[in-house]
Design brief:
Layout lengths: L11 H13 L8 E8 L4 E6 L7 H7 L6 H20 L12 E3 L5 E3 L7 E2 L7 E2 L12 H5 L7 H17 L10 H9 L12 H10 L16 H12 L5 H6 L1
Length: 253
């Protein structure tokens, strides 16, 4: 895992802080940072060392398993991802770049979050840590307020929006906005308040929950988001896996 070109202008102490944030994370659904190495490639890039994930990214895994991955394992993948997000948020960490390309799948089919702070970084080590969301391809998962808002930081709520997009991807097998090939068209649709279409394979209950994750961000930053919290997402997915109605849905529908 190589630090990209956008970090070459950063001073090492700032890179060190981001490495320190990842290193202090310890959860079964977070890819562990084993260490760093340097001297690779013609520009002596800094590399981050983690364990090897046999099944690659969530996006590639879903593509390979399109016809064979049943509904329950898909829900288990989502619960893994939600548990990772819940841990991050409880640790006052905003991922800021959640997508099908930043979730890795191990040999047992367990999902783990990765890619912490490799694009842009702002904010200090103390308190909430923010990671930038601006990579090529990530636009399919990103919250519209990050695109529309000038200088808008990623937030816990924008992570939840991105989780809703991952949920759509896992349940349908297609990346969000699969019907739109050109990314700037997606940007325009997000700016206009549009959301991806509902695939027929996604149930009404799951679609309703995805839409809750995509609830519009309040214009007034002091107002709470109507998107579910990470614990509410975990509760919902556990309820679906165990055939019960979640507390979240009892309270909101």
């Amino acid at each position: 895992m190589f630090v990209d070109d956008s970090l070459k202008s950063f001073h090492f102490p700032q890179v060190h802080r981001e490495l320190a944030i990842w290193r202090r994370l310890n959860h079964e659904n977070i890819v562990p940072l084993l260490g760093i190495a340097s001297g690779f490639g013609p520009d002596n890039s800094i590399s981050m060392v983690s364990i090897w994930f046999t099944n690659g990214t969530l996006t590639s895994y879903l593509a390979r398993k399109r016809e064979t991955l049943h509904h329950r394992p898909r829900l288990e993948l989502l619960r893994d991802i939600a548990a990772g997000v819940q841990y991050l948020h409880a640790s006052e960490v905003v991922h800021g770049d959640l997508s099908g390309n930043n979730v890795l799948i191990n040999g047992q089919g367990k999902a783990c979050l990765t890619d912490f702070g490799l694009s842009t970084a702002s904010g200090g080590f103390q308190g909430t840590s923010y990671f930038g969301a601006g990579r090529h391809g990530a636009i399919r998962w990103v919250a519209p307020e990050i695109i529309v808002g000038v200088g808008q930081h990623s937030t816990f709520a924008s992570d939840i929006y991105s989780f809703g997009s991952i949920m759509l991807q896992v349940l349908s097998g297609e990346v969000p906005w699969s019907e739109v090939a050109i990314e700037h068209v997606i940007v325009q649709k997000l700016t206009d308040g549009q959301v991806p279409r509902r695939p027929s394979i996604v149930s009404r209950t799951h679609w309703a929950f995805i839409r809750k994750c995509w609830s519009p961000s309040p214009r007034n930053a002091t107002r709470p988001s109507s998107r579910p919290s990470a614990p509410e997402i975990v509760d919902f997915l556990n309820s679906r896996l165990h055939g019960k109605m979640s507390c979240f849905f009892r309270l909101t529908i």
